[in-house]
Amino acid sequence: MSDADAAPGELDHAPKAVGGDDRVAHRAGFVALVGPPNAGKSTLLNRLLGEKLAIVTAKPQTTRSRILGILHREHAQVLWVDTPGLHESTKKLNQALNAAVETALGDCDLALMLVDGTRGLEDPHERLLQAARAKERPLLVALTKADLSTPSGAREEIARACGVEPGEVRAISARTGEGIPELLDAVIERLPESPPLYGPDELTDKPLRFLCAELVREAAFESLGKELPYSMAVEIVSFDESDPARIVIHANLLVERNSQKRIVVGTGGAMVKRIGSRARREIEKLVGGRCHLELFVKVDPKWLKSDRRIESLGYV
After folding, report:
1. Coil/strand/helix, residue 169
2. Which residues contact 4 (CB under 8 A, 6 or more apart)?
3. Are the C-beta atoms of 83 and 101 separated by less than 8 Å?
4. How confident is residue 58, by pLDDT bands cut at 50, 70 and 90?
5. In what order do the strands lie in the sheet with 67-73?
6. The domain 3-189 belongs to what CATH superfamily?
7. Which residues in the chain are classed under CATH 3.30.300.20?
8. pLDDT tens digits for range 223-241
9. Which residue in 166, 163, 162, 180 sits closest to 40, CA to CA?
10. Location of each CATH 3.40.50.300 domain in the chain
């Protein structure tokens, strides 16, 4: 099996020796995945980990928090930080998400900026470049969707615009795996020498209840119209893992207005049942067992306007 066909968990790498002897330096560090909405950050994270850790939908601005994904290698530990898409907005939630991106850039050892190969550089990229330079963070650029048509000379043009060498721009496809092993090699080479920062069995620092809430939100995004999901949040009310054969979850779907509640509930409860069925299937894949999921729709007109409420829901 070639590197291009390897599953994410099977990618192999030739680590670098230290100072010419046979010892191999272990490397570990944080890599911030940054870019505009719908740049493919969450899709790339899932591909790299070989696990569905971050939710993915066709709608932009699906990601609402920094999500840490831990990739273990024999001589490296890569701590991927998936971030929300940077965009202009005056809403409290979106301002909090933009602040999360700035924090991730400040805390990372390497910034990996994603550029959609079919769209090229967009307005948020300049702001991200300025932030990375201000924080003096090394930068790699991933030119995504390499399996689709990309304009000739795009890599060189983007390298010039970003102020990096052409070799710092890597063409990849998270869908097919093209360029992923080479990108991972380039990332590991740029991480500092360090022992592992997390245990060998850890995949993320997010609790299971948060990941399940995100899968409910993903199901809502996929089931509802264009605008409504952005005004909705998921609140886990109870999370019972006491029965090893079945996890029991009660959650609220929070909306701002009664008119939205009627849409989410649907005729005879059809819509909320559809969301629940879709989310239940994904949760059972995540936990590897059965799930009893009960969803309730609740009007909470202030959740989008309260910093404390936004933080309590994990959207930071």
Report:
1. strand
2. 176, 177, 178, 180, 181
3. yes
4. confident
5. 67-73, 76-82, 27-34, 110-116, 139-144, 169-171
6. P-loop containing nucleotide triphosphate hydrolases (3.40.50.300)
7. 208-312
8. 997 778 888 999 999 999 9
9. 180
10. 3-189
Whether residue 57 has pLDDT greater than 90 = no
Cβ contact 98:86 at 8 Å? yes
The CA angle 71-61-137, to the nearest 5 degrees, is: 50
**From CA 55, how far away is CA 214, in angstroms rounded?**
7
Going through the chain in order, the beta strands assigned E by DSSP cover: 27-34, 67-73, 76-82, 110-116, 139-144, 169-171, 233-240, 246-255, 290-299
* pLDDT of residue 24 exceeding 90: no
**Residues 83, 78: Cα–Cα separation, whole Å:** 15
Q: What is the pTM of this model?
A: 0.87
Over the stretch 66-122, which tens digit does the pLDDT of each residue have? Answer: 899 999 999 999 999 999 988 777 788 888 888 889 999 999 999 999 999 888 898
Lowest mean pLDDT among 27-31, 155-159, 249-253, 294-298: 155-159
Which positions ≥6 away from 188 have C-beta within 8 Å?
13, 15, 27, 73, 76, 78
Burial of 227 per CB tally in 10 Å (0-12, 13-18, 19+): exposed
What does the alpha-carbon distance between residue 302 and residue 255 come to, in Å, rounded to a whole number?
9
Q: What CATH architecture applies to the domain 208-312?
A: 2-Layer Sandwich (3.30)
Asked if residues 187 and 30 have their Cβ atoms less than 8 Å apart, the reply is no
Query: CA–CA distance from 295 to each of 89, 216, 241, 301 (Å)?
Result: 30, 9, 17, 18
